[in-house]
Task: inverse folding
DNA sequence: GGTGTTTGTCAGGGCTCTCAACAAATTAGT
DNA sequence: ACTAATTTGTTGAGAGCCCTGACAAACACC
C-alpha cells in the first residue's frame, strides 16, 4: 500500500475466497512472522500478527507438520511467567535450487528455508555458441550433483529455477525465447533436460538479480529499478516488492532508451540508444580495449581476466582513457535513469551485475546527471546505490524464488 | 496476473485473513459478476464464479440488503426449467460524487452504482490565482446542489472525490501539495470546506482521467500509460488495472523527460525537457499564438475559445505553422513515449486530456517516432490510441472511484 | 395434464477462527 | 521453602461461512 492503490481499493481478486485460502494466508502470515522476527513463541506470534493464541497454535502445528518450522531446543528465559517455546524457520528439509547459465560459466546454489545459501558452486564453461542441448545437459548434471549434496545435508529440493541471460516470456511453458549472448532462440527446456522430473523453470537473470537484491537488502514493499549489464543493459523493476515484467515481459529494456535522438545508429535500428554509450562493447571500445565476448557463434575466447575486471583494474590504476570511457557511460546512464525516475518515481536505483564492480567510477557521473535533471521532485543522491550482491544476485535469486514461494504459500509443502 | 508475479506468488497480504474477509471478497465477486455480465440469475452467478447456488443466494440476499443489487421485474424466460430471477446492479441508492476544479471551470458529476453518469454539471470559473478558500467554497456549493439533485433521483452519495490539477501526496490527509496552475500550495481541504461532513478526497486529475479511461474502455488487468496535458504534461500509469503512483506519488512525470539532452533550458532547471517541445505554451508559441493561461497570479483572461480548441481549428483549416508545431510536438512526444514503452512495456498508450482533441494531427508523428525507435520488441501502431473520454475523464473518474470502491468491497455500504 | 428441467432455499456438516477456562512452568516475594 | 502472580500453550464450546444433498416451485415440452 505504499504506492499503489490509494484511490482504488484492493480485494476482488476475481476468484471466490474459500476457507482453504484463509488458512493458506494465515499459515503464510505466521511463517512470515517467525522468519522475519527471529525466534518467537506462539504467544509472541499471536500478539504480533493479530490472531489468537489458539489459532496460532493450530497453524504452527501444521507448519511443523509440513517441515517449515521447528521448535528450537532453547526456551527463552528471564521473564516472569511460563517460558514460551521458541519457534524458528526450519534449516533442514525444504530447500530451493537455483541454477545459472552464463556466457562463460554455470552456477548452482541451494538455500534452505531461512534463505541461507548452503551450497554454492560455480564452474567456468564457454557456453556461447554451443548447442543448447549440450549446455543444458551439463547444467542438469551440475544440478543433480548439487541436489545429491543437498540431500546429504538433510535438504530436500522443493523447486528449481534456472537463470538465463535472455528473454523469457510471461506465460509459463519453460521457454527461453532468445538468448543472444548464448546464441539460443526458442529453446524449450523440457526438450533438452535429461531428467523430466527435475526440469527447472527459466527466468531472466536480471529479474532474478533484482529480486535477490530486494529480498536480501531491500526495504519491505520497496519500489526500485535494478540496472544490470549482462545481456545488453537491462533494468528490472521491482514495484511494491514485486517484480514487474510488463505486459509481454519486456519491461525494463533500458539499453535502447534514446539517449541522444540523433546519436550513432544502433544494431536495433534506432539511433543514440543507451547501449551505444554504456554497453559493454561501447565502453571497451572507448577505453581502447578489444571487444571481448563476441556475439553468439563467433569465437568464444574466454580469456583469463574478464573484461569487467580488466576495466576495474585499469580504472583503479588511473588509466585515463578508461576513466573517460566510464565517465561517458555514467553520464549516458544518468540520462536514461532520469527518464526512469521521472516515470516510475522509485525509492531507489540499484546498479547491479557488472555495474556494481565499476560503481566507484560510474556513480559520480550518474549522480551528477540525475542531480541536474531530476528537479521537479525530491531526489536524494543516496537513492542511487550499488548492488550488494553484484554478480551473485541472479543465482541467489533463482534459489530464493522457491523459498519465497513457499513462504507465501506453505501448503505447497506436502503435509506431514 | 498478466504481468506481475510469475516468479513470485501472491498471498501473504501481511494481515491475517478472517471469515469476514472471505465474505467481503465473495460479496465483491458476486457483485462484480452481476455488474459485468448483465442481468444474471443466482444460478448463473454460481455457475460463473464457482460458488454454490446456496452460497450465492446468501451473498445476494446481503447485497440486496445493502442496496447494491435489485431483483429486476422481468424474469428471463424462453429456456426450459424454472426461470431465474434476474439480478441487476441497483440504479438507485448508493452513488458516487465527483467534483473537479479546473483552471477555468468547476465540475460535478454523480454516477449510480452501475457507473452511469446521472448528473453532469460544468460551470466556467476563472479559478487561477483566486484564494483557495473561495474556490473550494464554490465547489462545495456546487457539490451540495448536485447532491440535493441526486437525492431527488433516489441516489444517496456514498463518497466524494475532488479532481485537482496538482500534486496530491500518497498519504491520506486531504492535502493538495501544490497546484501551480491554480496558484495553490499546501492546501488542506478540510480547512476550507464549509461542511465538515462532505469534505471530498483530493486526487490528481490526470490519474483520475486514466482510471476513468480504464474503467470505461480498458481491457481487464490492462497495463497502459495515459498521457494528458493539463498540468504540464503528465502521464498516469495503470498497471494491471491499478493506478501506480510511485513511491512518493510522482510517477508519470513525463513532462520533464530529457528529450534532447542539450536542448533549451526548462523552468525546472534541466535542459531539453519534453515540455519545451510538446507543452501547451511551447506549442502555442511555435504555432504563432499568444500564450493563454498565464501561470497563477497573472491575468486570468479566460477568453471565449480555449487555446486547444483554437489549435484544433487552425490545424483543421490547414494552417501551416500550427501543423508544423503539432508535428514537432508529436515527434518529441514519440521520443519520450519510446522511453516509456522501453521501460514499462505497456499494452497501450492513450493520449488523453487536451491531446485527445489534437490526436488527428499528433498521432502520425508520434506513431512514426515510436515505429522507428521501438524495435527490440513487438509494437503495434494501434497500441497508441486517443482517449475516448477526452477532457471528461477526470470528473468521471472522480465519481467512479467511489463506485469502484464499493464494487471492490460492498460492506462499505450500510447493511439493510 | 404429465414429465423433465432448472431455480432458489433449507437443513446438516465441515472447516477455521474466537472466546473463555485451565493446567503448566516460571519469577517474585516472604 | 512456600505461596502468589504471571505468562504460555491447550482444550472445548460457539459462531461464521461455505459445501452437500434434498426438496418444493416454476416453467417448457410432449
Result:
Amino acid at each position: 500500500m505504499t504506492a499503489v492503490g490509494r484511490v482504488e481499493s484492493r480485494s476482488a481478486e476475481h476468484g471466490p475466497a474459500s476457507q482453504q485460502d484463509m488458512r493458506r494466508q494465515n499459515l503464510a502470515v505466521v511463517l512470515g512472522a517467525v522468519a522475519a522476527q527471529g525466534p518467537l513463541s506462539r504467544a509472541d506470534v499471536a500478539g504480533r500478527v493479530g490472531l489468537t493464541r489458539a489459532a496460532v497454535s493450530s497453524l504452527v502445528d501444521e507448519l511443523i507438520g509440513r517441515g517449515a518450522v521447528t521448535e528450537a531446543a532453547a526456551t527463552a528465559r528471564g521473564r516472569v511467567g511460563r517460558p514460551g517455546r521458541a519457534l524458528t524457520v526450519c534449516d533442514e528439509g525444504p530447500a530451493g535450487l537455483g541454477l545459472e547459465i552464463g556466457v562463460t560459466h554455470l552456477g548452482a546454489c541451494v538455500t534452505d528455508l531461512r534463505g541461507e545459501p548452503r551450497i554454492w558452486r560455480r564452474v567456468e564453461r564457454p557456453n556461447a555458441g554451443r548447442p543448447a542441448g549440450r549446455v543444458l545437459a551439463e547444467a542438469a548434471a551440475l544440478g543433480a550433483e548439487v541436489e545429491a549434496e543437498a540431500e546429504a545435508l538433510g535438504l530436500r529440493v522443493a523447486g528449481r529455477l534456472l537463470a538465463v541471460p535472455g528473454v523469457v516470456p510471461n506465460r509459463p511453458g519453460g521457454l527461453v525465447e532468445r538468448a543472444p549472448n548464448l546464441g539460443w532462440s526458442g529453446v524449450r527446456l523440457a526438450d533438452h533436460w535429461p531428467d523430466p522430473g527435475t526440469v527447472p523453470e527459466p527466468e531472466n537473470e536480471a529479474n532474478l538479480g533484482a529480486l535477490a537484491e530486494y529480498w536480501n537488502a531491500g526495504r519491505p514493499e520497496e519500489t526500485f529499478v535494478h540496472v544490470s549489464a549482462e545481456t545488453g543493459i537491462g533494468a528490472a523493476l521491482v514495484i511494491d516488492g514485486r517484480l514487474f515484467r510488463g505486459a509481454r515481459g519486456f519491461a525494463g529494456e533500458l539499453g535502447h532508451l534514446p539517449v541522444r535522438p540523433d546519436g550513432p545508429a544502433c544494431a536495433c535500428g534506432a539511433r543514440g540508444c543507451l547501449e551505444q554509450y554504456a554497453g559493454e562493447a561501447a565502453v571497451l571500445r572507448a577505453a581502447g580495449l578489444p571487444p571481448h565476448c563476441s556475439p553468439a557463434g563467433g569465437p568464444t575466447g574466454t580469456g583469463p581476466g574478464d573484461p569487467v575486471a580488466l576495466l576495474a583494474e585499469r580504472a583503479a590504476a588511473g588509466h585515463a582513457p578508461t576513466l573517460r570511457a566510464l565517465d561517458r557511460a555514467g553520464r549516458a546512464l544518468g540520462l536514461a535513469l532520469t527518464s526512469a525516475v521521472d516515470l516510475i518515481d522509485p525509492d531507489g536505483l540499484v546498479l547491479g551485475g557488472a555495474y556494481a564492480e565499476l560503481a566507484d567510477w560510474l556513480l559520480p557521473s550518474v549522480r551528477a546527471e540525475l542531480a541536474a535533471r531530476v528537479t521537479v521532485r525530491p531526489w536524494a543522491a543516496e537513492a542511487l546505490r550499488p548492488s550488494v550482491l553484484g554478480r551473485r544476485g541472479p543465482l541467489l535469486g533463482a534459489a530464493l524464488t522457491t523459498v519465497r514461494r513457499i513462504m507465501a504459500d506453505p501448503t505447497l509443502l506436502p503435509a506431514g
